[in-house]
Specification:
110 residues, mainly alpha, Cytochrome Bc1 Complex, Chain D, domain 2, 5 helices, 53% helix, 0% strand, globular, heme, signal, metal-binding
Length: 110
């Protein structure tokens, strides 16, 4: 039976760890994220459905330095009165990192 160097196991572990880190750091496509978190049930890129379009949101908050954090908070916690009487429900399934990514993506709409 051939003998293997103990380095083979170390290298295999290092490669698998590095591969796992690369996967975790890969950004998720924001459009797919919005679809998977039910954002598109109430919002569309350019047309009002139940809530405002992503373009309307971007237009309203363009240039506001506090908008990304405020929008990310609203995505997770919900809100009321920003766009009329119909409240936006909280989205506890959305992580803080996902909310920040979605907020930046929405605010970049033109």
């Amino acid at each position: 039976m051939p003998r293997f160097s103990p380095w083979y196991g170390t290298v295999a572990v290092m490669l698998s760890f590095a591969g796992g880190c690369a996967l975790a750091a890969d950004p998720v496509d924001p459009a797919r994220l919005a679809a998977s978190r039910a954002c598109l049930s109430c919002h569309a890129p350019a047309a009002r459905i139940v809530g405002p379009s992503f373009k309307e949101i971007a237009d309203r908050y363009r240039g506001d330095a506090k908008a990304p954090a405020a929008l990310a908070r609203t995505i997770r916690q919900g809100g009321k009165g920003h766009w009329g009487q119909l409240p936006m429900p909280a989205n506890p399934r959305v992580t803080e990192a996902e909310a920040a990514q979605l907020a930046r993506w929405i605010l970049d709409r033109k």
